[in-house]
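Sorry, explain these tokens?

***
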Amino acid sequence: MTVLEDRIAMAKSDDEITLDELFEQIEKMPAPEGYKVEIVEGTVFMSPQRDPHWEVILDIVEQLRTKYPRKRVKSDVRIDYPGHLNGFASDVTLMAEDAAKRDSGLWRHQDVEFVAEVISKGTAANDYGAKKAAYATAEVPVYLIADPYQRRCHVYTHPKGEDYTTETRVAFGSDVDLTGTVVGLTLSTAEFPAD
């Protein structure tokens, strides 16, 4: 199949294509090395992993690992969320202790306890918009956005419908207190780099 044929196949109406089919088509196309691919509301996004972005992700993962075993902490692993064609590869995901994969081999969104996204200029609207709505709809208890451009974190808790009822803003350099949440620890942002 040629690239043109692949694009035509991908252009089928959203009612005719599934997330699995869409990801299968994407895998056939050469994506630049170092890019993360996600599908948000049926639209494919490819974003580069830059050093400051990765440093924040790694910092969050390392802090989660002080409390949680490796098998519960994920990064850039596809999980399908409620809504129209939402297949996200979140920057950091914390799975429940008894998390189980579906028959397809994918993790279930019902087992996600915490998600962290680090903002990229090209995908910020997704993280603050469609992805936040999908996480809330999936009842992810804690959603953290680390925004190097604003030099602050946004912590969303208490999902209700397509939104969260509580938002807490924490400037980089301060601690993010998640002790009163399912996460049960405090994240330091002291080493989060600005972009």
Q: What stands out?
A: Confidence is low (pLDDT under 50) at residues 1-14. The helical segments are 3-10, 19-28, 51-64, 124-128, 130-137.
